[in-house]
Design goal:
Catalyzes the phosphorylation of D-fructose 6-phosphate to fructose 1,6-bisphosphate by ATP, the first committing step of glycolysis. This protein is of the alpha/beta class and about 425 residues long. Helix content is about 40%, strand content about 15%. The structure holds 6-O-phosphono-beta-D-fructofuranose (F6P). 6-O-phosphono-beta-D-fructofuranose binds next to loops.
Length: about 425
């Protein structure tokens, strides 16, 4: 019986809970024992302290010894020092790898953020940390993990898998696991799903959380539109997306922006300021009462000089005399209820992820589950990560055509 754990890592995104729900339910249906790891890789490193034994509680399918319903998720005390006493009297001290069942994840597809927590773990980046993580998994008998996170989190999973045989033999040499345990857990199975609002991963058309973030931006533009129109104002909206302009571009298209500034495709003209002002003046002359400019947080000009929303505001104010305001959407784009697509995509991918873990052999590569042309696909995880990094490299050397064609191989000017 495969024992499988699911964790969320890196920045949260809408749809992560739906991933956990889908993985847990699909795995139970396929006869696996299911666990969640709280607080991302940090939870793997911390594991379960020995005095913390799983109690038997009654429940339905796969739920027999689950404690999850009794944990207080999001409770800062749990994360700060790993200790907390639950009101029921159960000791939850140092419990990060938790057995879960069917009922634990009921209704999770509709919840924002990640209920099992996420963290940017520094300790997992050290060999010592990964050694503890391997030990904690072996103690629980787990040798398959599904990770939902960004490219850094998925790379971490692949490194862990590659290093696993050495970690196991070191643990045995240190007397922390038996020869029998080492033999039983010779191979770690991993699978990745991309949780990122930025839609910044290559080899998948959509990342989990991006559709919801886009809806937020679209709604925000609608809201701003009416007030901008009333006062005949200009608004500069800064949207998230780190190195990726997908949210800015699609948000701008869905909300009818006048001008959009992206990292992958900076304006090629000598003065984008002139270009922007000419366009907006043209729109105003044609009778438009409001102007909207979208700036991706990673936007820059063709010489890689960062373009900030405040600077855009100054240009519009000084050159066109427009009464201009700046709105930074920030984390309102990331939190909140997932839209339908961020329930469907994680559900389909979670089911495929379990199948990929069940099929995995030491010779198969680590897979990332993606979606291409409407079909759920398995792609070699490190190939996708490498291609994603190449976009950043291309931007760094100002090869913007290459950046665009890496984002979309069919891209034409
Ligand atoms: O990658 C997701 C993202 O929301 C980016 O769009 C943004 O740049 C970053 O995370 C913000 O990170 P933090 O929540 O740590 O400020």
């Amino acid at each position: 019986k495969m024992k499988l754990a699911v964790l969320t890592s890196g920045g949260d995104s809408a749809g992560m809970n739906a991933v956990v729900r889908a993985v847990v339910k699909a795995a139970i249906l396929k006869g696996c024992e299911t666990y969640v790891v709280r607080e991302g890789y940090e939870g793997l490193v911390r594991g379960n302290s020995d005095e913390c034994k799983t109690e038997k509680v009654s429940g339905s399918k796969g739920q027999e010894d689950s404690l999850l319903n009794n944990l207080r998720f999001g409770d800062g005390e749990l994360l700060k020092d790993g200790t907390s006493d639950h009101p029921t009297g159960r000791t939850l001290r140092g419990r990060y790898i938790v057995r879960v069942g069917w009922d634990d994840v009921r209704g999770w597809f509709a919840q924002g953020g990640t209920l099992i927590g996420t963290a940017r773990s520094m300790t997992f980046k050290t060999v010592e940390g990964r050694l503890n993580a391997a030990h904690n998994l072996i103690k629980e008998g787990i040798d398959a993990i599904a990770v939902c996170g960004g490219d850094g989190s998925l790379t971490g999973a692949d490194v862990f898998r590659a290093e696993w045989p050495k970690l196991v033999s070191d643990l045995q040499a240190q007397g922390r696991i038996t020869a029998e345990q080492a033999k039983q857990h010779g191979h770690l199975k991993i699978v990745g799903m991309v949780g990122s609002i930025d839609n910044d991963m290559s080899m998948t058309d959509m990342t989990i959380g991006a559709p919801t973030a886009l809806h937020r931006i679209c709604e925000a533009i609608d809201n701003i539109d009416s007030t901008a129109s009333s006062h005949s104002r200009a608004f500069v909206l800064e949207v998230m997306g780190r190195h990726c302009g997908w949210l800015a571009l699609m948000g701008g298209v869905s909300g009818g922006a006048d001008y959009i500034l992206l990292p992958e495709r900076p304006p090629t003209v000598d003065s984008w300021e002139d270009q922007m002002c000419d366009l907006i003046k043209g729109h105003r002359d044609a009778g438009k009462r409001k102007s909207i400019v979208i700036v991706a947080e990673g936007a820059h000009d063709k010489n890689l000089k960062p373009i900030h929303a405040d600077y855009v505001k100054d240009v519009l104010t000084e050159r066109l005399g427009l009464d201009t305001r700046v709105t930074t959407l920030g984390h309102t784009q990331r939190g909140g209820r997932p839209c339908a697509m961020d329930r469907i995509l994680p559900t389909l991918q979670g089911v495929e992820a379990v199948d990929a873990l069940l099929d995995a052999t030491p010779d198969t590569p680590s897979y990332m589950i993606g979606i291409q042309n409407g079909r759920i696909v398995r792609v070699p995880l490190m190939e996708a990560v490498k291609m994603t990094h190449s976009v950043a490299e291309a931007i760094k050397v100002k090869d913007f055509d290459k950046a665009m064609s890496l984002r979309d191989p069919e891209f034409v000017e």
